[in-house]
Amino acid sequence: MKFKLNTGRTIWQGEAIEAGKNLELYKKAAAVIYINKEDMEKLGVKEGDRVKVKNKFGEVVLCVKEAKEKNPPETVYIPMGPWANLLVDPDTDSTGMPYLKGSPKPECLVEITKTDEEVLDIPQLMRKYYLEKVLKETEKKKKKVKA
Question: How far is CA 33 from CA 6, 40, 66, 78, 84, in A?
Fold first, then answer.
């Protein structure tokens, strides 16, 4: 099942940012996905379950929360931050800002599946998705130079 992705700030995320992004409080506020109750039932998930969310741009494991403020049909909400950034289209169409409020492009839709994988904290997330990627690209460049 595919969903439109919407991102933005939440009160809880703002509170957690002030406390510190490296704290569990921030992970609990930002490494989550808000899903309508009806869509949760279709996906076979409940609040507190973990899901893998993926699209053309990346994938990430998040904790499910029932949307208290109902999303539009087949739309999910992930608070802005490092977890949501893995799914956002980096193309800005020359605006300087990515589509954080739901891109009209079909490749920006996300697929959601239940998983047993753990939700990563920020150091783990940065290491897995950013640092390891940079190190691999650097190694490829070194090999090309030697060849």
Answer: 10, 11, 8, 5, 9
CA distances from 73 to 2, 6, 103, 109 (A): 11, 12, 15, 13
The model's pTM:
0.83
Of 1, 2, 16, 146, nearest to 81 by C-alpha is 16
Q: Which of 103, 23, 14 is nearest to 55 (CA)?
A: 103
Angle at 109 between CA 27 and CA 10, to 5 degrees: 35
pLDDT in tens, 4-42: 998 888 767 766 666 666 677 889 889 999 999 999 999
Could you tell me the CATH number of the domain that includes residue 71? 2.40.40.20
The DSSP secondary-structure symbol of 55 reads E
Question: Number of folded domains in the chain?
Answer: 1
What's the domain range around 45? 2-146
Neighbours of 50 (CB within 10 A): 17
